[in-house]
Amino acid sequence: MKPRYVLRSASLAAFAALAACSGGNDEAANRESVLLSSAPAAGSSAFLVSGDPAGSFGEAFIGSDGNGIMLIENDDLRPAAAYYEVTGNAARRVPAADAALQTSLVAGSATPVNVKPITLAELAGSYAAINRDNAVTNFTLSAEGVISAGASSCRVNGNIRSASTIAGALPLIITLSGCGADDGDYRGYAVKAGEYAPAALRMVGVNRASFIDMLAFR
Q1: Cα 20 to Cα 149: distance, rounded to the nearest angstrom
Q2: DSSP class per residue in 123-181
Q3: Pairing with 37, which of 53, 162, 210, 216 sits 20 to 30 Å away (CA)?
Q4: Which one is predicted more confidently, 138 or 70?
Q5: Alpha-carbon gap, residue 146 to 173, rounded angstroms
Q6: CB 78 within 8 A of CB 11
């Protein structure tokens, strides 16, 4: 199963390990909660899923500690929902569902995502990135992992760290501003894989309210 991409939308999505979130009322917690009858294996993989109204395709990045995140894609190959705090057979979902969900990975459908080892030094440079809602932003990435906004009205700042529990995925923390509904702070990963070409980098992240999926081009 090979992921498919279009330049005007970052078609799949991936994933970020987040610190546990708390708060909110019981109804909200139930809508955010997802029961995974089978959990993604450690590493990077793509698979079919059942039980989520957002779609039937998923991709996950799970660390050696068992924590990570996966995204659900709709029939138009657009990212529609993200599961985060994926730990064992439990997860949270953004956006929250209308009711508590039980999601299953279709047996035998999982295939590895061919992630490539990356370093901050090789990633350093100037980029133009497009988010899942087609918002475009420009930024530079230093060899130390600092992300600095460019001249675009949608601005991204933050950093990428050099160590990770997921092969080929480096943790990132970024802030979007001037990007409309996407504005906010996100935790996620910077990933490089052959499936993302001609993009040089994929940046994904989540917060309690939303998620991002950017393809970045040099």
Answers
A1: 29
A2: H-EEEEEE-TT--EEEEEE-TT-EEEE-SSSBEEEEEE-S--SBTTEEEEEEEEESSGG
A3: 210
A4: 138
A5: 10
A6: yes
Q: What is the pLDDT of residues 16-56, one digit of tens each?
A: 333 233 334 445 555 678 888 887 888 888 899 999 999 99
The whole model's pTM is what?
A: 0.79
Each residue's pLDDT tens digit, 51-86: 999 999 998 888 877 777 788 988 777 788 988 877
* Predicted pLDDT of residue 37: 82
- Residue 32 CB-density burial (10 A; 0-12 exposed, 13-18 middle, 19+ buried): buried
Ramachandran sector of residue 152 (left: φ over 0; alpha: ψ -120 to 50; beta: rest):
beta
Rounded to whole angstroms, the Cα distance separating 201 from 164 reads 16
| The amino acid at 141 | L
pLDDT at 30: 56
**70 beta partners:** 60, 83
Phi and psi at residue 174, to the nearest 5° = -135, 155
Provide the CB-side half-sphere exposure for 197 (13 A, CA). 7
Output the average pLDDT for the chain: 80
Considering only CA atoms, which of 209, 198, 201, 59 is closest in space to residue 139? 201
Q: What is the C-alpha to C-alpha distance for residues 140 and 191, in angstroms, rounded to an integer?
A: 16
- Three-state secondary structure readout of 78-117: CEEEEEEEEECCEEEEECCCCCCEEEEECCCCCEECCECC
Q: How far is CA 176 from each of CA 10, 28, 124, 173, rounded to the nearest angstrom? A: 16, 25, 20, 10
